Amino acid sequence: MKTDMTDGNDTVILEIKNLTKHFPIYRGFLRRIVGNVQAVNNVSFSVKSGETLGIVGESGCGKTTLARVILRAYEATSGEVLYRQNGEMINIFSLKGQELKKLRRDMQIIFQDPFSSLNPRKTVMEIIAEPLRIHGISRGQELKLRVGELLELVGLNVKHMNRYPNAFSGGQRQRIGIARALALRPKLVICDEPVSALDVSVQAQVINLLEDLQNELGLTYLFIAHDLSVVEHISDRIVVMYLGSIVEMVPAQELYKNPKHPYTEALLSAVPSIDPNTHKTRIILPGEIPNPSDPPPGCKFHTRCRYAREICSKETPKWRDMGNDHYVACHLADQLTLQGITNNL
Ligand code: SF4
To answer: Which of 302, 318, 319, 336 has the most ligand 1 atoms within 8 A of CB, as the residue to mutate?
Structure first.
């Protein structure tokens, strides 16, 4: 668990305001819109420079769509994404041409699957050099030197730059993906489940590498994961998403000790304990995550929540400030005593 913001800086670098992304559902010959997949709903948060914000939730909760909207891979349905550039917060949806190209240098992504995200017909040299070529940053011998530097930075042997991805293990391929993401010296890196396709034995190595790179290069991370055990040690704060909405946002240590949302409690119950004397009860959520094109009324979690009361299916819970930078959307937040974990910290 990190205890300090890496550069001791409280400057906000990214601010998401009421961001919504719905995908229309078309039917029939005339392709009429008959509904919407509500992938991201009214999401707001900010990220400080040098911070790691973990974003956690089950598959289909909207976290990857959120990342793609921030990177402008998808157009937002509504809302704003503000990013700090040259001391000013700019709305990235207003950027075009060269300004947008400059933004893309600042924001990079590390993909989930190191097997499909690297072109098998290109050498490591070609893969890492590609963004440098596209942005016209270096060429010739200088380009080769820069690729060598990046390989060293991520702990790979420079002599292997002419090999193809299939010559590397999963963990090494993810290091190549990290080197490619860092080639343009970004400030903000979105890590989209960067270790979930890797063996447990190499997950910690890649997370440690990401932490070291953050300290060395002053990076800010949005770290997406589907379970809380992965984000535990790298995050400063954690956002928990359910069915396209944020249900809890809290400093990492506080979340593990003192969860306030029943969904967070269920996710925490699945985190393996490192203390053999600790006995936790695993909470198995009933049913499937509801259809995002037809979410339940009231609290979207009420169909699976073991504490649900009548009000939960009728009224949408408000966003509540629980103090100490802890926010939650639950009608019963101040009445429930939920099971956290303290031994892992
Ligand atoms: Fe559960 Fe009700 Fe809280 Fe929703 S509002 S999480 S259903 S207790």
So the answer is: 302
